[in-house]
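hiii so my PI (J.) wants the whole complex modelled not just the main chain, which honestly fair. so below is everything: two entries, each one labled with what it is. i double checked the lines twice but i was tired so who knows lol
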Amino acid sequence: MTERISSVDTFDIRFPTSRHRDGSDAMNPFPDYSAAYLVLRSTAGAEGHGFVFTVGRGTEIEVAAIRSLAPMVVGQPVDALVADPGALARQLIGDSQIRWLGPEKGVVHMAAGALVNAVWDLAARRAGRPLWSLLAALTPEQIVAQIDWRYLRDALTEDEALTILRDAAPGKAERERTLLDEGYPAYTTTPGWLGYDDEKLARLCRQAVSDGYRLIKLKVGADLGDDVRRLAIARRAVGPDVGIAVDANQVWGVPDAIGWMRELAPFDPYWIEEPTSPDDVLGHAAIRSALAPIRIATGEHMHNAVMFKQLLQAGAADVVQIDACRVGGVNENLAILLLAAKFGVPVCPHAGGVGLCELVQHLAMFDFVAVSGTAESRAIEYVDHLHEHFTAPVRIANGRYVAPRTAGMSAQMLPATLAAYRYPDGPRWAGADPSDGGQR
Amino acid sequence: MTERISSVDTFDIRFPTSRHRDGSDAMNPFPDYSAAYLVLRSTAGAEGHGFVFTVGRGTEIEVAAIRSLAPMVVGQPVDALVADPGALARQLIGDSQIRWLGPEKGVVHMAAGALVNAVWDLAARRAGRPLWSLLAALTPEQIVAQIDWRYLRDALTEDEALTILRDAAPGKAERERTLLDEGYPAYTTTPGWLGYDDEKLARLCRQAVSDGYRLIKLKVGADLGDDVRRLAIARRAVGPDVGIAVDANQVWGVPDAIGWMRELAPFDPYWIEEPTSPDDVLGHAAIRSALAPIRIATGEHMHNAVMFKQLLQAGAADVVQIDACRVGGVNENLAILLLAAKFGVPVCPHAGGVGLCELVQHLAMFDFVAVSGTAESRAIEYVDHLHEHFTAPVRIANGRYVAPRTAGMSAQMLPATLAAYRYPDGPRWAGADPSDGGQR
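here's the output for the full assembly
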């Protein structure tokens, strides 16, 4: 009997993080970190896990989208599926009726990405390898075949991608050993949430330095006076040699971003992240040009590779922040990593939330081993929330991600978590005010 | 008692249009024109109708999104709501948790747009005026106050918008009379669907000319040989003086678009529409530069005003094609009309589908009366499908839209239609193969 995908189970999982304002920023004052979570199961009992990270209300829409796409996965033969997840990605993203709701953006695109990621999780489990290692073992031709090139060739052709991957081949084995020995650089956003008071900010900044971080990040953009005060506190706490990135979470228009950041420039921000709408490539280019040499970082809300392509073509960013759950899954992120390599822009993945660290570390580590070949000027965001809910949580040592050795994409939540935090019927939520955890 | 919104009823309405390949193009071979439809009802029995146009599968996701947003509308006092729909638009689009699923794009943004449009429908009904006339009667200050300017000011400020509107004021009354007397230019896509055979194409082209159209549109991009043959047939049928626009529906990458269109250039295409990804502003600019003087048209899939802003800033399009259901409703389309006016680019709205003609005519007519002040080089798309399902269907005479006089936004479907075409339980669908109508 051919092994096939027999079911896609979905879960609406929400954590009441807004109670302590963990994750609070200028645009997200009260997030409840959540996930539209799914499990693929095969007729032989194999599993693949995936999810879309969300921040509370609306998770039910994302779950509905996953359910609508699931029939395209159920029944597929597992051997073929894991040998070529790109075929499924094209089918999910290219569905001629559902693509009207994107195309290649928002709810339906993220749902496709979660299913594609779950197939990669399944593929890596079957191969008995962590995903970064499975990807690094693919040939340049196999990687290139996993990407939809339709809209990318004016910036990067298949041949150029092959050259990038072949050029990186010689040092792969050595970098893999380095990665396993030393891990991959992290930076931390833990100190910088907007809802934390000054004392907590200073304490967490000092803690970050003593934990070995060389870069921290603060949320800005709600009140200029507060930002100046908080940056001064942070700079005092970390000293002159640790980088302080700042993150406005899209709160400004282009002229506001330029004006506000000029006031923060004396504190030597390492980058300004999401200074304006994530859709505004030309706006980012204008801000970058006005604020140089302050670096511009963006990407966590850029919805597909076409947007990243333009960001790079326009010279609009110094740092590309991929997200594991925003685009159409691993395959589209492979394209973005190759685009960034072509343009020589470092990738510093967005993480935090719930499970984003777990997923995206695999992509950064694959980039180090097989694409850019370097971790210089690169770091994965780290936030110390909610890792305890995963079967293979990330591990951090001396300000670095320890390379995962567990087979898969590190996407699996604990069964107890899926039971307790299921919304609205899990014990954590049943009977609670639906808007609790849940504040606006 | 204050009159309040008491309920939002939602409907998944689908028409089996794929049976005759009405609406077939290079990316949508078998669309089933559909709508995620909603009715606002007030405690006093007033109604506002709105919908998101969709093409079949996935309509249930859009309905789920409308249901998730509906609690923000229910309970609102009607007087305040209709006096300032922009306040609701900001609330729906800015919800700090739900915006993670966009932001300002895709399923959740279109759902917000449908609710906002329904409020405008309600406002126009209460005022006893068609929407175009209600909008045209607003002062420049009232129009400007309806727009979210956060991300637009680097291209268009509130003051510049006021100047555009004030400059258009003197001729308003005369243009309103002209509009009522003569209507607004239309062009027709009825002949050009990819699934029609050559005989039907030629016949419908001749019919279009005899019906008074000066511009028709053909779908292209599936097969170059077919496109050359079909364009030759169409050119022979309409003669040298009627424009033939062509529409690739995003099927090409940038180099493909340039190469393919060079082969079609001898047929003097009036514009090439959606030559590549709707997200690819810089790609459109490159295509435009390579293909000049062929016009570039796009917009039906551009997901928000920030994208239109960049399209105009980059000089990437000759024709801006607004869509009534893609962005965040009337309010965001007001911003796009003003941006187009600032940059001097004509707006030729996307329509067709189901109900898009009914809705968007109001925006084009408002543009004529109160913003651009001209219908020169402008036309609203017209397709003769499914108008019979509306209580106030569009009327076309001599290749022009007749200005609607019925109060509202012309959004209301017949009760019999809502009953019959409701998916999957309406009599048209119950018991049918769910993929019928419904082919891929």
